[in-house]
Amino acid sequence: MSERIYIFKRFERFWHWSQAVLIITMLVTGFEVHGSYSLFGFEDAVSYHTIAAWMLVSLWVFAIFWHFTTGEWKQYIPTLEKVNAMVKYYATGIFTHAPHPFKQTTLRKHNPLQRLAYLFVLLVINPLIWFSGWLYLFYDVWPDYGLADLPLEWVAVAHVIGAFMMLIFFIVHVYLATAGHTWTSHIKAMITGWEEVE
Amino acid sequence: MKTSKSVIAALLSTSLFLAGLAGAAEQPATTAETDKTVVAKSKRETSTADHSKYEELQKQFKQGQEVTEACIDCHTEAAKQIHKTKHWTWEYTNPKTGQKLGKKNVINNFCTATKTNMTFCAACHIGYGFEDDSFDFASEKNVDCLACHDTTGTYKKYPGLSGHPAYEPYEWPAKSGKFKPAVDLQKVAQNVGKTSRRTCGACHFFGGGGNAVKHGDLDKSLENPSRYLDIHMDKDGLDFTCSTCHSDGKHDVAGSRYHTQASDNKGPLLRGQKDDRNPATCQACHGDTPHEEDERLNTHARKLACQTCHIPEYARSPQLTKMSWDWSTAGKMGEDGKPMKIKASSGMIAYDTKKGDFTYDRYVIPEYKWFNGEVLYTLFGDKVNPDEVVKINDFRGEPNDPGARIWPFKIFRGKQPIDAEKRSLAVFHTAGDDDTAFWQNFDWDKALTTGMKAMGTEYSGKLSFVSTEMSWPITHMVAPKEDALSCAQCHNKNGRMQGIDGIYMPGTDNTPLLDKLFYIIALLALVGVVIHGAIRLINDRKEAE
């Protein structure tokens, strides 16, 4: 028998989906700016990318505030406990509907692999994208900050590496959204807040 | 029957009515046109002197020099000022490189050199009688005031007259049977005024031997340009003349192709500001951060010349400009054994026995390169490598040079004679009535012997042709801002800045190796999750069964 628990609060769901839209927008426009294909045209791609960036910045201000005021930041404290079991589960157990090695609760909503993955996003991918993106965005004032000799190429390459990592995260993340108790239980939870658990 | 008659009558009356309407509509339009011309004229006529009332000018002048003597009676310093300019001396020493330039000294890849051809070339000298080295450069009366200050449009200097206008009817082109009228010097002298696009253009629009030939960004259409062609000279808009920008107030002309300024990182010049800055740069009026709405565009100006974006194409008047000139094929006779001209489908001369092969183009996308203000010419006597393309003038610059910008250029390509033994660009005698002029008998040896002798050396007898390139920085025919380059014209896989060193261009440059690596990883991730999902799906199906 399955039961339902309330995992994702309203703000969290809003944050997740608006961030998803913004990140997809930035991936699509960003790779156009990078020259990978032509879709909106360079000029519009740059505008959309910039607008999305500022929206994401605003969203993050709220998200950071929310995480600290609610204490939800603790959800990302890493643990190695049961990591092996999780790897094993995704490698074999999941195919035979073996019991999930991790019990989801409101206080521990992410499994250990998720925690590590999200922490990697928070500590590696995001800082790389944000820092290089910030520099990129303020290219016009580099000389005022003594950065006149910083090669734009370095910044661009760092930004692109971050973007590719985000793209790969995105692919795996979307797939693993189907790896809940049922194919759609995680997705439903992200929409309604209620997760079906075993 | 009756019906058809009435139909005809109705048709007739209708057409008469329409014709009347058209006539009525025409009337006010013509008046409006006249009004406009009157306004335009009165705007120009700011002078407080009417030269037609001057006693000194109430006489029949026989020669240009007589007019000049009258001019300098009042304008006592004018000729002295002219004497200091390269319009007069045809000589200019580049202060950076020390090279002696000017029309007297440089060899280009059009008509090549002036030395032995002065009776022709002097049609564009602002003097009378510059026939050869014996010309008196100290003479004040030899200064030609009218070439620049005529307002009647009737003062013309034809090749072959050593800088004089036609005092008697003059056959031009030679042997054409067409005669140009003699100039009325009194009328011209009484109607002097400020220089105009037409007076400057009389030489500068026709450089290289014809309209639009040489520069690509200067041609006769600039006498009356539309807004589209030139935002500053627009006859219905700002209506700039050449001297609005190119003036230093002392008869000298600001701005130079011999010593071109690559950039100016200062604000706009104010009226009366004591400054030795060049007033002909874009920045002299606009400053170096003129884009108020988008700081990103100002940032672009740290690497790009203004002209790079604001003159997206040259020769867009749409008069064709010459793109190449191959002297090595000159001298071939037609089937009748006589000199010939072959026209291209454009109607332009593609081959001329006198000159060789030509190509033309219009709406040309410039070639771009870094330029730091240093221009180095290949001069007579400089050793050239016959196996390499010789740069007639080298506009130099590297990405990190102070003041360097990426500039647009017309690159004029040619093939021209060198003295193979001396390994120097050759000077040869082209125009003239004597037996050794190339255009008389098409004999390279004779033409070269005369030309090289005039340069103070001897022709070795060994002729060969070398490929040459001459750079013309594009700076006129500035487009209205809506026609400036859009981002994607450069920020594109095939963008205009491809191959330019020292810049990273989002959209053009990327990181092929890194991209490939990450594409593979992303693809592996995608394939991985698809396989993983497929196995789950198959297992689910099996279980359900």
List the keywords:
heterodimer, A: about 200 residues, mainly alpha, Fumarate Reductase Cytochrome B subunit, two-stranded antiparallel sheet, 6 helices, about 60% helix, elongated, B: about 550 residues, alpha+beta, nine-stranded mixed beta sheet, two-stranded antiparallel ribbon, 15 strands, about 30% helix
The gross shape of chain A turns out to be elongated
Intertermini distance of chain A: 7 Å
Instruction: Report the C-alpha radius of gyration of chain B, rounded.
Output: 30 Å
Count of individual beta strands of chain A: 2
Q: Strand share of the residues of chain A?
A: under 5%
Q: Rough shape of chain B?
A: globular
Mean pLDDT of chain B: 91
Beta-strand content estimate of chain B: 5-15%
Q: Could you walk me through the main structural features you see in this protein, from its secondary elements to its overall organization?
A:
The complex is a heterodimer of chains A (198) and B (545). Chain A is mainly alpha-helical and 198 residues long. Chain A has six helices and two strands. In chain A, α1 (10-33) packs antiparallel against α2. Chain B is an alpha+beta fold and 545 residues long. In chain B, strands 5, 6, 7, 8, 9, 11, 13, 14 and 15 form a nine-stranded mixed sheet that branches. A two-stranded antiparallel sheet of chain B has the order 1-2. The longest helix of chain B has 43 residues, at 2-44. Chain A binds chain B through residues 33-36, 38, 41-43, 46, 90, 94-97, 139-140, 151-153, 156-157, 160-161, 164, 167-168, 171-172, 175-176, 178, and chain B through 295-296, 298-299, 486-488, 491-493, 503-504, 506-511, 514-515, 518, 521-522, 525-526, 529, 532-533, 535-536, 539, 543.
